[in-house]
């Protein structure tokens, strides 16, 4: 029999505990538990959607944790799934309320599209972040002036105040790496991103210095994929794989596009991208040789 109470999200006395990552990970855990309850009763997504006066696609989004929960919807789904224990119901309903609590990044929602707000929440919750970058250094490893130059390039004509806030958001995201329980970041960056001038020589030099400093962190692995490595399997461009400590949560592959993003969590997709990332890590310079290469690039500037 499947319990309605997600064990990873409650304290020993049954009270809901919000894990690191805030509302995003709570939504994902609650959604995963609702999916298990639905499947245990052999109820289709279409039937579940009808019970809450919604579409099958909304049930899919709820189960993936991509959208906030309404207490009434969760209550109706629990009834449909046969959850009658008052303690279990109250735990799930309390989680639904927690899942609706805005994350710290909500203060920037006038600047951020909804699809990127989802990513910031996932990033905040991740235990491991693996990235491959082609054009820019990854946002979590950008020096402030480099970040400003990259943001100005992407948002041409934006008011200075908006640029300042976007830079502030990026610097705030980087605090993750300072937290005792923060994620491990493993970033493979193409040599072209380091050679391409951005913001002028002084900005470029400071960025390389910043990468050398970041590479010394115990929770950061940095590798450069050099030109001499030749062809590689990441023909689709940059991507990020996020892994979570909670066993209920699947890995997520993030693919950012110009005005939208894709989030892949099907196992076969995750396996494909993980295999590509592993190949890139083998082809790239080792972490030690990467620092040597960064120092050589710095001397050339």
**Biggest sheet strand line-up:** 3-2-1-4-5-6
Label the CATH architecture of the largest domain: 2-Layer Sandwich
Residue-averaged pLDDT, rounded? 90
* Helical coverage, percent range: 40-55%
Element-level helix/strand string: HHHHHHEHHEHHEEEEHH
N-to-C CA distance: 64 Å
Protein name: Helix-turn-helix domain-containing protein
GO molecular function: DNA binding
InterPro entries: Cro/C1-type_HTH, DUF5753, Lambda_DNA-bd_dom_sf
Domain DUF5753: 117-295
Summarize the structure in words.
The protein has 301 residues and is an alpha/beta fold. The protein folds into 2 domains: 7-99, Orthogonal Bundle (434 Repressor (Amino-terminal Domain)), CATH 1.10.260.40; 110-300, Endonuclease, Chain A (2-Layer Sandwich), CATH 3.30.870. Helix content is 49%, strand content 11%. The chain has 12 helices and 6 strands. It has helices spanning 23-40, 45-51, 56-64, 71-80, 86-99, 114-125, 144-154, 160-174, 191-195, 201-215, 267-283, 287-300, and strands at 128-133, 184-190, 220-225, 239-243, 252-256, 261-264. It has a 6-stranded mixed sheet with strand order 3-2-1-4-5-6, sandwiched between helices. A hairpin with a 4-residue loop joins strand 5 and strand 6 (261-264). Helix 1 packs across helix 3 (56-64) and helix 10 (201-215) runs antiparallel to helix 12. The longest helix has 18 residues, at 23-40. The chain is elongated. Residues 117-295 form the DUF5753 domain. GO terms for molecular function: DNA binding. This is Helix-turn-helix domain-containing protein. InterPro entries: Cro/C1-type_HTH, DUF5753, Lambda_DNA-bd_dom_sf. Residues 1-23 are annotated as: Disordered.
């Amino acid at each position: 029999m499947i319990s309605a109470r997600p064990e990873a999200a409650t304290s020993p006395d049954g009270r809901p505990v919000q894990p690191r990552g805030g509302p995003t990970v709570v939504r994902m855990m609650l959604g995963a538990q609702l999916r298990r309850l639905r499947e245990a009763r052999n109820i289709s997504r279409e039937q579940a959607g009808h019970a809450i006066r919604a579409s099958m696609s909304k049930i899919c989004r709820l189960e993936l944790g991509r959208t906030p929960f309404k207490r009434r919807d969760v209550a109706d789904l629990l009834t449909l799934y046969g959850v009658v224990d008052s303690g279990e119901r109250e735990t799930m309903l309390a989680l639904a309320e927690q899942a609706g609590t805005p994350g710290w990044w909500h203060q920037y929602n006038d600047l951020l599209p909804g699809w990127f707000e989802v990513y910031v929440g996932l990033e905040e919750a991740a235990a491991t972040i693996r990235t491959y970058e082609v054009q820019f250094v990854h946002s979590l490893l950008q020096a402030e002036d480099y970040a400003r130059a990259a943001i100005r390039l992407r948002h041409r004509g934006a008011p200075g105040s908006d640029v300042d806030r976007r830079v502030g958001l990026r610097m705030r995201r980087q605090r993750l790496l300072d937290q005792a329980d923060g994620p491990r970041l493993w970033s493979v960056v193409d040599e072209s991103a380091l050679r391409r001038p951005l913001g002028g020589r002084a900005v470029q030099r400071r960025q390389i210095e910043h990468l050398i400093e970041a590479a010394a962190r115990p929770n950061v692995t940095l590798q450069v994929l050099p030109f001499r490595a030749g062809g590689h399997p990441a023909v689709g461009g940059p991507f990020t794989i996020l892994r979570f400590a909670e066993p209920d949560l699947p890995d997520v592959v993030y693919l950012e596009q110009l005005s939208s993003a894709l989030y892949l969590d099907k196992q076969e997709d995750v396996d494909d991208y993980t295999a590509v990332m592993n190949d890139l890590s083998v082809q790239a310079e080792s972490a030690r040789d990467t620092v040597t290469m960064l120092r050589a690039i710095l001397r050339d500037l």
